[in-house]
Write a structure and sequence with these properties.
Blueprint (H helix, E strand, L loop, with lengths): L1 E5 L4 E21 L2 E19 L10 H18 L5 E4 L2 E4 L5 H7 L8 H15 L7 H18 L6 H24 L1
Length: 186
Amino acid sequence: MVTNINQNSGTLTAYRSNSVDVSRTSTSVKSGGRTTTTDTVNLHSESTMAVTYSGGMKLPSNDEARFNMLRQLVVNLLYEQGINTKITIGDSQIDLATVTPAQAQELISDNGYFGVEKTSDRIVQFAMAIAGGDPSRIDAIKAGVDKGFAEAKKAFGGWLPDISYATYDAVMQKLDKWVAESTATA
């Protein structure tokens, strides 16, 4: 089937080749006392169908529809990997499968749980704990952060949202501050 869509006029034209003719011919050709039968199959008969559609068939282009589609893609990806979409935040729990755009915006805001400040604090606290509170291991800590950031970029096709870069910068600044304060008191 060949399909042609004209977006300007809203016309969809489809061409189909869908007819079949079958015929059987018996001929008497005596070759060693046998009769030969010939079968012929012809595929032909083209039909054309034009359908006019309205603009109502277009996908909605509003932000809510795009957000819902992205959210569902992320949720499905997490489910396929066996990852729970519920996240515990302090005393409450959020399910990524049902989060609204307003809730998502709040979560990544300056004071939000996934905002630059709180996320970088969690990363730095984790890194300091892994290092056993030893600032002399800063090079290994930064190498680990760099590796994690590079893997995240790779997983997302070489690009991350601006908030990720801001979080990375905040982590590096907080690690430098931790080392500076630790060496100043030593």
